[in-house]
Fold this sequence. Notes:
Oligomer: single chain
Radius of gyration: 25 Å
Largest sheet: 9 strands, antiparallel
Shape: globular
Mean pLDDT: 82
Amino acid sequence: MGIFSLVFVFLGMQDLYSIEIKPYSVDFKSIEAHDIGAFELNSSIVNSFYEADDWIRFNDKDEFVRVNMLSLEQNISANELLMKDNNISLKGDVYYTDVNGTRIKSDEIFYIRDSKILYTDSNFKAYKDNNTLLGNS
């Protein structure tokens, strides 16, 4: 009984929560899916259709492979899509078309969702009606 009491006294004197726990930035996958197809609906029509060959969700970002986004306002396709917070980056054979007849081809396009700004830092071709605009960065 004396040893048992001594062990409890010893454990009671220890500060078990003083261990310094260091957060390491390990990026674990939390979801992985293949052959994705998703519809965005309202009460009367289908607004958008999204498809991707692969989707990986991490703690702070989503990655998609071979993406097509078809909606009433614009269509976008790319080899890779990275979505983090409010920013979307599209890479590899990026094609954008909208209802106004604007078409853009580039190797990389960035989109800021809040401000609805679409921009690129790489070479691009933009088409509007019979006009063509070539851009070099």
